[in-house]
Request: fold
Amino acid sequence: MKKTPEWLRWARELQALGQTGLHFAEISYDRERYQRVEQIAAEILAAHTSLGVEEILSLNRREFGYATPKVDVRGVVFREGRILLVQEAMDAGRWTVPGGWADVNESPSEAVEREVLEESGLRTKATKLLSVYDRERQGHEPSFPYHVYKVAFHCEWLSGSLRSDGSEIAGAGFFTEQDLPELSVSRVTRAQIQRFFLHLREPERPADFD
Reply:
C-alpha cells in the first residue's frame, strides 16, 4: 500500500482545518487566523508541486462548509468478458474506466450512469457497488492536494453504441484482462481492473473498500 507523504497529509489537514474554521467562525480575529492556516497549507503544497500559492488558494475557495473528501465515480461495463475503457485526451492518450466527479444533487447511480453515457455513448444501469477506495492508498499518480474517495459500480449496458465526446475522450473500446492498453494511473490502476474482473467471475463477492 502506498504511503502518503507527510507533507501532503499536513497540508491537507491544515487546509481542512482552515476551511472548516472559516465556515463556523463568527469573530473577525478567528477568521483571520483560519485564513492564515489556509495560506500555510497552500504554501506547503506549492513548495512540493508545480502549482502556485494563488492557484491553490483559488481552487480551495470553490469549497465551503465542513471539509470532506471529494467523490470520484467510475462505471465498470463488461461485454463478452471484456471491460469498457475510454481514452483520456488530456492524459497522453492513456485509458481508464469511464467516470469523473459526482455532481451536486445527483445520487451515486445517477452520477456514474451520466459519466458512462457522456464518455462512451452507452446508456447503462448501475447494478452493484464494486469498491470504495481512498485514492491515496491505491497507488494513483500524481497525488492530489485534496482527499478523494473513488467509488466504482458495475453498470449493465442497456443501449447505445460506442462513441467518444471528441474533447476530453479520444476513443472507447472493450479490452480483455490480458490485453489492457496503457492506463491513466491518475484515474485507474491495473490492480483495480483485476479486482473488477474478479467481481465479474464471482458476482456474489462483497464490495472492496479502503
Observations:
- The beta strands are 70-76, 78-79, 82-88, 94-96, 99-101, 123-134, 148-159, 169-175, 208-209.
